[in-house]
Amino acid sequence: MDWQRYWQGLEVPTPRTIYINDPLRNSFCPNWISTAKYSKWSFLPRYLYLQFSKAANAFFLFISILQQVPDMSPTGKYTTLLPLMVILIISGIKEILEDYKRHMADRLVNTKTTLVLRQSSWDRIMWQEVNVGDIIKALNGEFLPADMVLISSSEPQSMCYIATSNLDGETNLKIRQALPETAGMQTEQQLLNISGKIECEGPNRHFSCFTGTLHITDRSPVPIGPDQVLLRGTQLRNTQWIIGIVVYTGFESKLMQNAVKSLLKRSKVEKVTNVQILALLLLLLAMSLVSFVGSLFWDRANRAGMWYLSKEGGKSSSFGFDILVFIILYHNLIPISLLVTLEIVKFIQAQFINWDEDMHDEKSGLHAMARTSNLNEELGQVKYLFSDKTGTLTCNVMTFKKCTIAGIPYGQSSSCELDDPALLANIKNGHPTEEYIKEFFFLLCMCHTVFPERDGNNMIYHASSPDEAALVKGAKNLGFVFTMRTPHAVTIEALGEEYTFEVLNILEFSSDRKRMSVIVRTPAGQLRLYCKGADTVIYERLSKDSLFMAETLTHLEHFAMEGLRTLCVAYTDLAEEEYQHWLMDYKSASTVIQGRIQRLEACYDAIEKEFLLLGATAIEDLLQAHVPETISALLKASIKIWILTGDKQETAIHIAYSCKLISGHMPRILLNANSVQETHHMIHQNCQDLGDMLDKENDVALIIDGETLKYAMSFGVKTKFLNLALSCRAVLCCRLSPLQKAEIVEMVKKNVRAITLAIGDGANDVGMIQTAHVGVGISGNEGMQATNNSDYAIAQFSYLEKLLLVHGAWNYFRVTKCILYCFYKNVVLYIIGLWFTFVNGFSGQALFERWCFSLYNMFFTSLPPFTLGIFEQCCSQKNLLKHPQLYTISQKGKIFNTRVFWVECMNALGHSFILFWFPTKMLMHDMVLQHGFTTNYLFLGNFIYTYAVVTVCLKAGLEMMSWTKFSHLAIWGSIIIWLVFFTVYSYLWPTIPVAPEMSGQANMILTCPYFWLGFIIVPTTCLINDILWKVMRNTYKRSPLENVRQLESSKVKGFEFSSVLEKRMTATNLQMSLAAPQPHEFILRNNSVDLSAPHGYAFSQTESAVITQEELVHYYNTLVSERKGS
């Protein structure tokens, strides 16, 4: 299909024509989406491809094929094929179970319902059944199922409000307006009678762009722009209903166009393991070559005296045939059971995450969910955390928490809302500031674009700005109730009295102005201008007669330090003549063609002067529970945190202060540029200022907006920008598109040798979630797109602390120990085959019975690695959370790397040497057993095999840091299982025609005194070196982890661990937040650096909307709305 080819990037989208009320002519992408890896038809080929793309599986398939060649395999035909089939089946079941969860999550999205006009009535159908050209009706609070062109709405002038935080991270609502030509099309009959088409651009990822033309029969064509388009993933708010025509569906919607191609993620541990497997393959080939060369030399030296070994016709074996025989003999050096062991271990680890009640959100009923188990150990190595802001760190809830009026602060830190009884008492008791308090709240009730709706005795406020809604609701709670808006007036009930103010003009808010004003006529007939905005712009416009300036500024600084969003409020009285003169200038500026915005802002500025300060407001952008504590713990764990948000810069900075990512004394590098050259200059200057401290973590915050980032990511600037960002303690990137978020993560991922994690809750976070090594989705209020594309899903940001510091650390220790142990036990047993070739003439003879040989991994030594991988704990959950610094042990990967791997292999090589040569020398002179039996090679092989099983089981015990009943069961149970199997297996033949060479072996060996002597001496000799090394390391070079474990074992109470860390950890390991960062000798001299005290100003408001703020307030009439409602 065309849409599939486009989605795969094979062709450029072309303009499209959509026929209205003619579905048969519209053939486009379906509206279903899928985040699953497999379908019913693609599962088998794709699964087999993925499995055999792993070097180990491909190698074992090759061995299985070779074993089918007659007279080639010394180990039988099916000893590799059957275990390989078991591995593939178990892995396949695990993949099916995990992908089933993805299908169920996709189904929740695809089966949501919406209203579609079908056959003269509104039918409720599933999202996946929506087609391009369908006429959709969405109700208030619903998410939109597809991209559509707005036809009409329930609101005046066919406006509607949409929440786009799911797309761009902004908290304020956006306004969209239908075309006047379609605004009256609201009934079913009117909609069915529409005849025409929409010509528009093809699908693309640009949220703010849309070019189209509406052709209605017998009418002139009408242009369609982004102000008429509603996108999939947005939510309808403050609007009863809207009607639209679908233009893009499914993967062609702009939301899905911004998603990046889902990558097959593999953990760093898995990648290291694959490299070591390839190295072992080379070692295996070397062993085979050595054995072949050894056989040639042995044949030449001994063939003359051993004529019976000559092949028929005197022909010697070919090089290729002999090499393949030795490859088959040694192939178990690569642990065939490792992959299936890891699959089971990781699956169970994922269930532990799913079952963790500490990560269960009781309010929503959601548990943590591991959507994949392949990355469990990656959670223990995260170095860079990329977090969204809106909905991830915050709750999307604004509350009016504190204020200062006439130099007096009100509000309590412990309270969620402003409810200070002293405030109302000062009004009722005739306090000298009574009039200031009244004017303060009158301003809050008028200087906004909120409109009220009465619901019985309750007032509901609809606003595009969450800040404005919070202020109006806060005033209402204190007795100043905004009750009515008409096109030219507002009515306020204040402490039992009703006041009506005539609204004359709205002086609009913009990011450049940082303020909003309203000109009103008071009930007493006085012209008054109320203004709210940033302290910097209000203070420079204050009259010399204004009071409380110093006190208010002090309070503003305190509010900002608490992470509250602040606004200064002031007013000025206007003379009638002054206002009329200004009004003429205002009307003139409103009608100019060129430079209208600049003329209007100059006109606003002319009258916004000589203010009298009333005070300031402080709004709390409510953080999710325990966010500051979680960020503090993650910083102590040496995890660098970058905030990537689509919201405004002021808002992002405020949240960074609020969640304690940025401190008040921290210098802030602000990168806001308009060209590549300017960006390059600013970055270069800051890099020079850092000097030798570049590429080292400094107590500095870097803040950059999306426009500047576009230049910073260009060729020639990108490397310097990355170096500067990596040198900062915190990085804030604002006003980013979803694609820019993914680009930043990709930049760090490719250029820094560290594990990245991205966390978000909206569809705009999907790209970075898929790009990062580990993606975590927040199951929030912004749809399921983020969680459906994530590797792990949690309900709250605070759960990330336990997910990383506990589950991540535990899983890293478990997986790495399991891997090392699996390689260890394989090298121990199967290198013995190499030693045996030196005494069997390099003949390729196996020392062990073929099924014992194959069942070693799958049966006799399978329990210890499972125990290590499932139940191992480096230390308790309590201590991992109490001392986040311990996370750096797994983060730095010091317990699993190439050096550690080969040290373990060399240790196993030494053990295999002892296991073979000690029993061989012990039986060198042969012996006569009871009933006249003599020993043979299999007698020696069963000696060695038993000692090997005992040794590797006891070795697992030495590796365990947390002994449980399962540990005892695995170690002693495995030894007993082998002895019981060995005994039973020796008596099967001839009753069961299998393994005749094993007949009577148990009776001979278990009654031999040499066997029991070696049973004690040989494993002890192997492990004595490991025991001594462990004792010496824990005595003379104890790690911080061992200190904690000692405290746990001795149950010491009240011990201060930080002092132990300070003494024990070297300077290299002390890159963690045990204390405040030490200042470095560098000076930031350029203009991009902000060294001032933090400002709390942040305000969300729609800018450059299709309808101006003044038009908006004049359109609404509460009286008309109430009559419609009744």
UniProtKB/TrEMBL annotation:
GO terms for molecular function: ATP binding; ATP hydrolysis activity; ATPase-coupled intramembrane lipid transporter activity; magnesium ion binding. The active site is at D388 (4-aspartylphosphate intermediate). Residues 788-1037 form the P-type ATPase C-terminal domain. CDD domains: P-type_ATPase_APLT_Dnf-like. It is an enzyme of class 7 (translocase). Residues 18-81 form the P-type ATPase N-terminal domain. It is a multi-pass membrane protein. It catalyses: ATP + H2O + phospholipidSide 1 = ADP + phosphate + phospholipidSide 2; a 1,2-diacyl-sn-glycero-3-phospho-L-serine(out) + ATP + H2O = a 1,2-diacyl-sn-glycero-3-phospho-L-serine(in) + ADP + phosphate + H(+). The keyword Membrane applies. It holds the Pfam family PhoLip_ATPase_N. Its EC number is 7.6.2.1. Its cofactor is Mg(2+). It comes from the Eukaryota. It is found in: Endomembrane system; Golgi apparatus; Membrane. Mg(2+) binds at D388, T390, D761, D765. ATP binds at D388, K389, T390, E468, F509, K532, R565, T645, G646, D647, R735, K741, N764, D765. GO terms for cellular component: plasma membrane; trans-Golgi network. GO terms for biological process: neuron development; phospholipid translocation. Keywords: ATP-binding, Golgi apparatus, Magnesium, Membrane, Metal-binding, Nucleotide-binding, Translocase, Transmembrane, Transmembrane helix. Residues 111-176 form the P-type ATPase A domain. Gene3D superfamilies: Calcium-transporting ATPase, cytoplasmic domain N, Calcium-transporting ATPase, cytoplasmic transduction domain A, HAD superfamily/HAD-like. The chain crosses the membrane at residues 47-66, 78-97, 275-298, 318-342, 827-848, 854-875, 896-918, 938-957, 969-989, 1009-1029. Belongs to the cation transport ATPase (P-type) (TC 3.A.3) family. Type IV subfamily. This is Phospholipid-transporting ATPase. It comes from Chinchilla lanigera.
